[in-house]
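Quick one, C-alpha cells below. Sequence please?
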C-alpha cells in the first residue's frame, strides 16, 4: 500500500532527459545559425526534432506546477506551450505513405531475378 502514496511523475523520463540534452549552440561560421549540441540538427523554433517531440509530450503530460518550473528553469520556452494546441491540428504530416504500387498489382518477386527454380516455383 505504501506504493500508492508515492507521487508518480506522469512525464516519461526520456522527455526530461531529452529536454536537458538537446541544447542549442551557435555555429562558428554560421552567423546566427543555431544547431543542436547533442544531435547536430538545425535549431528551429522548438529546437531540433527530438527536442520538439520531447517538449510536446512534456506540455501534454506534465502537471501545471511542473510546466511552470520548467519555464522558470529554462527547459521550456513560452513558445513551446503552443505545441499542445498544434498537436492535433496537423495537416496530415504523419499520414501514412501510399503503397508504391497499385493495390491490384502484385509486387514482383525479388527472388525471381536469381533464377532459383525451387524458390520461385
Ligand atoms: Zn537535438
Amino acid at each position: 500500500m505504501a506504493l500508492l502514496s508515492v507521487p508518480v511523475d506522469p512525464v516519461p523520463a526520456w522527455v526530461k532527459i531529452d529536454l536537458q540534452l538537446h541544447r542549442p549552440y551557435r555555429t562558428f561560421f554560421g552567423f546566427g545559425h543555431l544547431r543542436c549540441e547533442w544531435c547536430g540538427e538545425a535549431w528551429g523554433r522548438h529546437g531540433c526534432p527530438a527536442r520538439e517531440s520531447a517538449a510536446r509530450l512534456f506540455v501534454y503530460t506534465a502537471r501545471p506546477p511542473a510546466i511552470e518550473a520548467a519555464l522558470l528553469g529554462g527547459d521550456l520556452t513560452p513558445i513551446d506551450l503552443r505545441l499542445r494546441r498544434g498537436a492535433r491540428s496537423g495537416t496530415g504530416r504523419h499520414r501514412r505513405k501510399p503503397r508504391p504500387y497499385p493495390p491490384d498489382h502484385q509486387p514482383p518477386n525479388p527472388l525471381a531475378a536469381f533464377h532459383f527454380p525451387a524458390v520461385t516455383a
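The chain has a mean pLDDT of 81. The chain is about 35% helix and 5% strand.
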